[in-house]
Amino acid sequence: MIQIFKKERMWRSYELDDTYDVVIIGAGIHGLATAYYLAKQGITNIAVVDRWYMGSGGSGRNTAIIRSNYRTPEGIAFYDESVKIYEQLGAELNFNLLFSQHGHMTLAHNNTGVNGLRVRAENNELLGVDSRIIWPDEIQRLVPAMDVGKTSRYPILAALYHPPGGIIRHDAVVWGYARAADRLGVQIHPLTEVQDIDVEHGRVAAVHTSRGIIKTRTVVNATAGWCSTISKMVGVDLPVVTHPLQALVTEPLKPFLDKIIVSATLHLYISQSDRGELVIGEEINPYSSYSSRSTLPFLEQAASHVLELFPCLKEVRILRQWAGLCDMTPDFSPIISTVDEVEGYVVDVGWGTYGFKAGPIAGKMTAELIATGRTPDLIYPFRLSRFREEALVGEKAAAAVSH
Fold first, then answer.
1. Does a structural domain hold residue 1?
2. Pair (339, 246) in one structural domain
3. Which of 29, 47, 238, 379 could lock 20 by a disulfide, CB 3.0 to 4.6 Å apart?
4. DSSP assignments along 206-250, one per residue
5. How far apart are CA 28 and CA 59, in angstroms?
6. What CATH number does the domain containing 177 carry?
């Protein structure tokens, strides 16, 4: 007997309503996570709008590395909570996210680099995060294919080893949050571009979209690459500069690299995906731009630096490269905050190259901020007003290299 199963849509399509309690701009991991955690608290009259498809921005253009081995106490505590959520998220969403925690390794090639890793290791240890300094013998044992020798151009003196670090399937996370939010009653509206935001008597009143005007008293800016453009619609200037970030993947290889390798000196990171591809990236481009085009200089430099660490890859073919947009703040930390000048306007922006790893906890904290009207202690250091209060959270030492 042949049994026929009815196909179930991952999420539903809706006509745009006239009014919502909350409008979230950006259908990436941050916007969808915020919608999901708001719905879990009973606020379900929510529209998530995006000018393109879900995950078309930073959520679909990153390399999905998860870690919490940051430098500042504020950053370490925040990202560690996100890692803890990720560890249980597949079960919570009932969706296979392909999360593999096989270790993250940050290399030091000189004494200054070793000293910097010592500070990070000690801060991590004090806050209960599993990170420690390891030396060339152990590095070689963990990553046999990497050249750690003293005769190499960039000898490896030490590394910060972070076993909980890993990689995850970024589109699976987006789909998992979208499906879960939809089942709680959230409306997701792709292909709905925000064109303007009305502010009346100092409070958000309506959002103009390509499909009509929505009345609302709460707007969340959860965009990547365009957060400053959206904020200007309500008359708020954000201390954000947008840079392109590029990455590439190689042809699939037999699995040989089960650690994420990062070098601040070489501005390089490399990992191997579950399909066998090597995922390679560098630092943000040194110029401000909204371009998402790939460039030959990046390809040449990334390939050269990879071979400094892995000479064995010299014959490997490159399949494709791509670029995304990164919103960089002056202190390399995000902005998760209400805005004093405009009531009902909330920002979850400025994530630079590390937004995907923070998606779950950022969404959860943003939802709590909206639902309670109070700023959770975990995100208070990332308030927008810190820039005028001279209370910066300097995270460049742990976040300046893309991952």
1. no
2. no
3. 47
4. EEEETTEEEE-S-EEE--SS-HHHHHHTTT---S-EEEEEEEEEE
5. 5
6. 3.50.50.60
